Amino acid sequence: MSNPNYPLLDPIRLGEIELPNRIIMASMTRARTDNPGLVPNVLQAQYYEQRASAGLILTEGTWPSRESAGFISVPGLYTQQQADGWRKVTDAVHAAGGRIFVQLGHTGSSSHPDLLDGDLPLAPSAINPGLKAFTPSGFKDTVVPRAMDLSDIARTVEDYAKATRLAQDAGFDGVELHGINTFLIPTFLYENLNRRTDNYGGSSENRARIVLEIVDAIVGSWASGRVGIKLSPGLTGVGNFIAGNETLATFEYLIGQLSRRHLAYLQLMNPVNDLTGTHLEVLGQDVAKHFRERYSGTLIANGGYTFETGNALIRDGFADAIAYGAPFISNPDLVERFRDNLPLSPSDRDTYYGGSEVGYLDYPTADAK
């Protein structure tokens, strides 16, 4: 039976996957993979299992290749050993009745040589993103990256395809392509960071080309109904990620092309700052409202929603599901708390990244409390 006032509690079909509700657990880096092989461990299996009542779990951002790494203690999915580690996670989630996609993401220029065995990070053009990288010896300024040649681009596309095949071996229900914030994909989409003069720069169609090539490679390695993508069209004013005259048009073109590919979903992240006076001002704070008419498939909205505002966005037809991040950290039973109108527990930001089970596995459910 549907819930006209609370559509978040209604089931939904995402591509080939049936979800019992529309409350999505967003990807969140927690940096608990503290081993040289970047293999998921027992802590992570327990963490995701605890949150299996989410309509869909999206894992922390996961490296599709060694050269895509950009933070310490974040897992990968480019070796069989990593896939075997992830299998323990997916088995635990499935045993608890859940569904789980792996999010694959390449950090690009926001990484640092200290994370890449001394190699320079990769980017569309040799332009420093002006950020801080989380390295083994603490935060360091980003550097001028190496501009990717055509072989780098082709290898990167294939890396995503290989990681997708490993995701199937690992028992995932699907793959989400990480295209948000300051990672590799946005550097191609922003004209001030992409100064290329070949087929990957100079126009909206060219700047979006690598994204569509990666999507098509992932789909070709699995199926369109097993693939989602997450984008942040409202990103501006973060380091040198500054929207220009053509940025919005590039996102509009890209999303129009994605709409024709019949993916499981498109997830859109709201801006992290006020867009007033920027080239993205028209997006406001609910970017799904701008792109709803441009995307015919399932649309997930992400960024600052409560149970009430999430339900309202779905009732108004601007989104089909809502992704929640921080509330899932301290409320493993977030779905049940929303359903039963129970208060949410606060989280401890000091334990968000790295460490042990403290601030990771020890948040009790409402029943336990």
Describe the overall structure.
The protein contains eleven helices and 14 strands. It has one domain: TIM Barrel, CATH 3.20.20.70. Helix content is 29%, strand content 15%. It has 369 residues and is α/β, with parallel strands linked by helices. 49% of the residues are buried. Strand 13 (299-302), helix 9 (307-315) and strand 14 (321-324) form a beta-alpha-beta unit.
Average of pLDDT: 97
Radius of gyration: 19 Å
CATH architecture annotation: Alpha-Beta Barrel
Strand line-up in the sheet with most strands: 3-4-5-10-11-12-13-14
Name the helicity range.
25-40%
The structural domain count equals 1
Net shape: globular
Instruction: State the order of secondary-structure elements, H for helix, E for strand.
Output: EEEHEHEEEEEHEHHHEHEHEHEHH
Beta-strand percentage range: 15-25%
- Number-wise, the strands total 14
Structural class: alpha/beta
CATH topology: TIM Barrel
CATH level 1 name: Alpha Beta
Query: Poorly predicted ranges (pLDDT <50, ≥5 residues)?
Result: none
Biggest sheet, open or closed, and with what strands and sense? 8 strands, parallel, barrel
CATH homologous superfamily identity: Aldolase class I
Number of helices: 11
What is the first-to-last residue Cα distance?
Answer: 30 Å
